[in-house]
Amino acid sequence: LLPLVHQQDTKTMTARTFLWVALSVAVTAPALALDPAFTANITVYHVYPNNEGVPPINMNTADLQGDMYFDLRSVATPLECAHPTARSAHDCDNPEVVAPNLVISKVTLEVDTRYGQYGRCNLCVNHTDNHGNNSCTDGAYWCDCGNFGAPPVQCNASVGRVQLRDEFGRRQCRTENGQPPALWDCWRDAVVDKTCVQPQSGGYWYSTTSMGYCGDGPNANTPGCTWRLLNEVKRVNKTCSDNSIYTVVESAGASCFKDCSSVGMQRNTSSACWITCFYNTVLGPTAGVPGGNVTGMPLSILEKAWDAPFNPESEGGCPDVHPGW
């Protein structure tokens, strides 16, 4: 045995060593960029040309109901763009609506839930994002956090979020100056009522900026970042997804669609007959008029149809698409 004094000195040195190591680790270890007290994993969808990367940098994403809203309102685009207005013209050349190589990606993100202002993120076309930035770079995404009609304001690092009922619940389906509203204005309003029943049930859009991106890989930890990509569940061709959903709707509304020129893989989705039957089936026959009721297909069936393309192919899902085709 060591002498008592020597034992005490050894214990003191050991304690000091442990303390020095602990302090060193505390000083040199990087602080977590995402505070676990304010993080959550969210599953979101986003539509974009397939030449873009997987992380939704400077892009908008949506939960299931939010993605349904975007897709459902876009079905009327052929009719709307045949009679464009200042409000609707953006969708007529929006690459996320009309590009030939569109895909839908289902991804899981880890986000800082101290959400900020939602940014309207769009691909620049002819040097404009159609939301006020008229000097952007063609083919690049830009997120605008300014007010509508005001000069553009670049978004900060916060993950933006908006509830669609708050953003699009303003009724456009109304008579103005003695003129009845367009069918698609009423359908657009009804889609909000259909997909965003209650805030707690979903209906959110998100914006994730390059300023807030943590970087690639599970250990990416850029200081001050607010979101990271955890995984891409699946990426599918939008045409495949649309056909899968349209087949479900045509089956539910067979008595209406039988009067249109064609259905199935030969369907004409630009036909006024087909578009009207689609909305009458999904939203109900009076949803296209002021004061009409939103009925139609149960939301649970629509949700199942919207997510089905991301099932394995053996269960009827769409093929997985590789980036860049």
The helix count comes to 11
How confident overall, as mean pLDDT? 85
Strand order in the largest sheet: 1-3-8
How would you name the oligomeric state of the polypeptide chains in this document?
single chain
Question: Major beta sheet, specifics?
Answer: 3 strands, antiparallel
Helix content: 25-40%
Evaluate the radius of gyration. 25 Å
Order of helices and strands, N to C?
Answer: HEEHHHHEEEEHHEEHHHH
Features:
325 residues; 11 helices; 33% helix; three-stranded antiparallel beta sheet; alpha+beta
List the helices and strands and how they pair.
Elements (H helix, E strand, L loop, with lengths): L3 H25 L10 E11 L9 E4 L1 H11 L2 H6 L6 H4 L2 H4 L3 E11 L7 E4 L17 E4 L15 E4 H5 L14 H13 L8 E5 L18 E11 H15 L1 H4 L14 H12 L15 H9 L18
Antiparallel strand pairs: 1-3, 2-7, 3-8, 4-5, 6-7
Helix pairs in contact: 2-7, 8-10
What can be said about this structure in brief?
The chain has helices at 4-28, 64-74, 77-82, 89-92, 95-98, 164-168, 183-195, 238-252, 254-257, 272-283, 299-307; strands at 39-49, 59-62, 102-112, 120-123, 141-144, 160-163, 204-208, 227-237. It is of the alpha+beta class and 325 residues long.
What does this protein structure show overall?
With 325 residues, the chain is of the alpha+beta class. The protein has helices at residues 4-28, 64-74, 77-82, 89-92, 95-98, 164-168, 183-195, 238-252, 254-257, 272-283, 299-307, and strands spanning 39-49, 59-62, 102-112, 120-123, 141-144, 160-163, 204-208, 227-237. 33% of the residues lie in helices and 17% in strands. The strands form three sheets. It has a three-stranded antiparallel beta sheet with strand order 1-3-8. The longest helix is centred in the N-terminal third of the chain and has 25 residues, at 4-28. It is globular. The termini are far apart. The model is unreliable at 1-8 and 10-31 (pLDDT under 50).
